[in-house]
Specification:
This protein has one domain: UDP-N-acetylmuramoyl-L-alanine:D-glutamate ligase, CATH 3.40.1190. The protein contains 8 helices and 9 strands. It has helices at 17-27, 55-68, 82-95, 117-127, 138-145, 152-163, 208-220, 226-242; strands at residues 3-11, 31-42, 47-52, 73-76, 100-102, 133-134, 169-172, 181-187, 192-198. It is globular, with a radius of gyration of 17 Å.
């Protein structure tokens, strides 16, 4: 059995963060473990509070999992501050963990800021050079690349800049672009891969970035090429989005088990 570790924040609303990751792992038939970086008070409309855990306790969670259960792949989500980022980079190097999928969570879908500004430099300098793939959306790509990302050409330029920070692959996600077709751009320093599909007419998209990155990590345990892993993860994401759950007053979560059942009791 393959084991995948998520290092991320907890979403009390159950739609994003480690909750989305663990659902994704289970749906894709890998065993999920977790190291919680922060506890959020969160629902479908907003994040009303964040309690960040000490970096040394985040590392303790990771080490406890690694030394007993093992890790075949891992992904990071909300890392909150530079202390946690540096600590996670250290434990990844110590145990030679990988492949590492970095979802550079900086801003929640509701617009709430989830990463301290000074942590961005630590992410760029410490964690991205260890990543097999980093998966920014347009807002995150804008921050990481230091330039506006609004068009496909902007995505290509941003991917090249972010790649120079050290990850093996960069996936710039185009879901926030206003267009009838959604295109994600994958780059490895020498070639671009494009993944396009018609935009789904859905509003329940909470946790889609977490789910996408978690699915990539799960697929990478099966040893496909990175473009194949991204393509398979994207297919899973689209199916989960198409059957999104209509709960709450804001953007509801995805249906992570849509391939197993459609109707809720």
């Amino acid at each position: 059995m393959k084991k995948v570790l998520t290092v991320a924040g907890s979403d009390s609303g159950g739609g994003a963060g480690i909750q989305a990751d663990l659902k994704t792992f289970a749906a894709l038939r890998v065993y999920g473990t977790s190291a919680i970086t922060a506890v959020t008070a969160q629902n479908t409309t907003s994040v009303t509070g964040v309690h960040t855990l000490p970096a040394e306790f985040v590392v303790k969670q990771v080490e406890t999992v690694v030394e007993d259960i093992g890790v075949d792949a891992l992904k990071t989500g909300m890392l909150a501050n530079s202390d946690i980022i540096r600590a996670i980079a250290g434990v990844v190097r110590k145990y030679k963990l990988g492949p590492l999928v970095v979802d550079p969570v900086m801003v929640a879908q509701s617009g709430d800021v989830l990463m301290e500004k000074e942590a961005i430099i630590a992410l760029q300098e410490e964690l991205l050079p260890l990543a097999a793939i980093v998966t920014p959306n347009l807002d995150e790509a804008t921050i990481l690349a230091g330039r506006d990302v609004k068009t496909l050409e902007d995505m290509k330029a941003a991917a090249q800049t972010i790649f120079s920070l050290g990850s093996d692959w960069v996936l710039v996600k185009g879901g926030h672009m206003e267009s009838e077709t959604v295109t994600d751009l994958l780059y490895n320093g020498s070639e671009f891969h494009y993944f396009s599909s018609p935009r789904l007419a859905v509003t329940n998209t909470h946790g889609s970035g977490c789910t996408y990155a978690a699915a990539i990590a799960a697929m990478m345990t099966r040893k496909p090429s990175v473009p194949e892993a991204v393509g398979q993860a994207r297919e899973y994401l689209l199916a989960a989005l198409a059957e999104g759950v209509d709960i709450g007053l804001g953007s509801g979560p995805l249906h992570h088990f849509a391939s197993y059942y459609r109707q809720w009791a």
